[in-house]
Amino acid sequence: MTTHRVAILALDGVTPLDLAIPAQIFNARPETPYETTVCGLGPKVATTAGFSLDTEGGLDHVRAADTVIVPGYEPGSEPLVRPTDEVLDALAQARDQGRRVVSICTGAFALAAAGVLDGLHATTHWLHIDELERDFPSVTVDRDVLYVDEGDVLTSAGVCCGIDLCLHLVRRDLGAIVANRIARGLVAAPHRDGGQAQYVPAPVAEAGQTSLSETRGWALGRLDEPLTLRALARHAGVSPRTFMRRFAAETGTTPLQWLLGARLGKARELLETTDHSVDQVARDCGLGTAANLRLHFRRTLDTTPTAYRRTFTR
User: Fold this and answer.
1) In CA terms, which of 11, 191, 224, 278 is 20 to 30 Å from 73?
2) Domain 204-314 has CATH 1.10.287.1260
3) Which superfamily does 4-186 belong to?
């Protein structure tokens, strides 16, 4: 595989977790082509946690990278401090040259200030959504999503949503099998659709309740079977209305949307790892027919099952 250079641009006041996420996910592995460099304006960058980080490269690495990632930063003032013109020029140049430009959390403000997000949809941490919308009217801000994929420009919501976005990029680059393997190493969900809500007001079960994770695991082992809301609720031992409410609170999405994402994920793995016909794959993942599978692949991935298999079968 051709080496894919990733530059993580750490600005002053970088959030350590925002930086650690892409550094971990795009770490070099035998099955991945990534070569990752943490970059900054100087040899050290201050973080929000009170310690400094050593950087490996400068803006020259940013200009030469295939993917540029700007983690969230909080310089300690409102509004967020505008990066230097030198940084903004490097980001604009990367965009103009067709590089992939990505932000995690408040890193979107740097992309917006560089003009990278002009005319595009984008998101950021829910605490700063109003500020992004007010300060950059040329950007269409999506409030209730985990991440936004605009092709070569991608933005994520707050902090841990960066995991979802980075795994999404690996999935785009190398397929579902590699992305799922990395997710398992992180003990992270292998796939959360970008359209899910980023801010879940009550992610923890109320007193006396138990998590629905057991029911989700039960469903994942039966994706080829008809799985109705009533069947899921029955397995969880609650009413359908209670199941809907608690499921949304835990996952930020509906049971049916979650099932669709799980079935598409299984379809992608089957296409990568077996020579089963498209009809068989559709039946095995619970989408019924090849026509239905093609419809959802076109809507979700903008491709066909056959083209996906051709791209990611190695």
Assistant:
1) 191
2) no
3) Class I glutamine amidotransferase (GATase) domain (3.40.50.880)
Range 117-140 burial, b when 16+ CB lie within 10 A, else e:
beebebbbbeebbebbeeebeebe
- Please give the Cα distance from 41 to 57 (Å, whole number): 8
Q: Pinpoint the alpha helices (H) of 65-140.
A: 85-96, 107-113, 129-135
Task: Kindly list the domain boundaries of the chain, sorted by start residue.
Answer: 4-186, 204-314
pLDDT in tens, 32-68: 999 999 999 999 999 988 899 999 999 999 999 999 9
Is the separation of the CB atoms in 287 and 293 below 8 Å?
Answer: yes
Cβ atoms of residues 180 and 190 within 8 Å:
yes
Q: Which helix (H) or strand (E) holds 155?
A: strand 153-156
**102 with 152: CB under 8 angstroms?**
no
Locate 310 and state its tokens.
Answer: 């051709």
CB 19 within 8 A of CB 38: yes
Other residues' Cβ atoms within 10 Å of the Cβ of residue 84:
13
